[in-house]
Amino acid sequence: MEQDDPAEALTELRERRLGALELLQVAAGSGLAAYAVWALLLQPGFRRVPLRLQVPYVGASVRQVEHVLSLLRGRSGKLVDLGSGDGRIVLAAHRCGLRPAVGYELNPWLVGLARLYAWRAGCASSVCYHREDLWKVSLRDCYNVSVFLAPSVLPLLEAKLQAELPEGARVVSGRFPLPTWQPVAVVGEGVDRVWAYDIHNGGQAAEAAPAPISALVPRGP
User: What is the DSSP letter of 41?
Assistant: First the structure.
């Protein structure tokens, strides 16, 4: 009885086309893997938040973080990142002198990841990450606020910011602008665009006449 040549068998396996059942099995496996990622990394934080206030996690890019810091350059005081994800903005802000730098994130896996990154950077005792619903956080002592949230929740966020932020505070919003406030500065293009808003007159956002984007981009020092 002749034995199959291993090389020929391997070639046959590589050239064989997947049947319908095999394709179905691959698709099912991929779906289960995607669900596992969702269940482990994203869903734990969402279960405690009403559906209309849920915001999926999308990490800020390097360019987006740079733009946030450019709009906070020269400022001091406490920085809060609402929905801080893996903590990259908090860590970068601390390194730029904004202290204390605090992140609020509901997903426990992301909070743990943020603390790991802070530990690896030697800043574990210098920055804070709290597992807490951003809608329940008091902002009355916050002078620098960073947000990367979905457009659906920004009108509600405006009301919270107006009610709680102190005079002179600055809000930096990434990816999407606040719907009714006028920015004092804008940097970046496309998904990397970031808007800055200043708080005046007892918590009300500055209401300046709209200006061209080119006029709003702050010049470097």
Answer: I
Pairing relation of β-strands 144-147 and 79-82?
parallel
Please check whether residue 138 is in contact with residue 81, taking contact to mean a CB–CB distance below 8 angstroms.
Answer: no
Can you tell me the distance from the alpha carbon of 81 to that of 60, in angstroms, rounded to the nearest whole number? Answer: 12
In this structure, what token pair is assigned to residue 90?
Answer: 């908090």
* 208 pLDDT above the threshold of 80: no
**What are φ and ψ of residue 143, in 5° steps?**
-105, -5
Mutual orientation of helices 88-95 and 62-71 as an angle, nearest 10°? Answer: 50
If we measure between CA atoms, which residue out of 138, 65, 135, 78 comes closest to residue 105? 135
Q: What is the pLDDT of residues 172-205, one digit of tens each?
A: 999 999 999 999 999 999 999 999 999 986 554 5
Q: Where are the beta strands (DSSP E) in the chain?
A: 79-82, 101-105, 127-131, 144-147, 170-174, 185-187, 194-200, 204-205
CA dist 196 and 217 (Å) reads: 10
pLDDT digits (tens, 9 = 90+) for 79-103: 999 999 999 999 999 999 999 999 9
Q: Look at residues 153, 151, 129 and name the one whose alpha carbon lies nearest to residue 79.
A: 129
**pLDDT for the residue 216:** 42
| Cβ-contact 158, 180 below 8 angstroms | yes
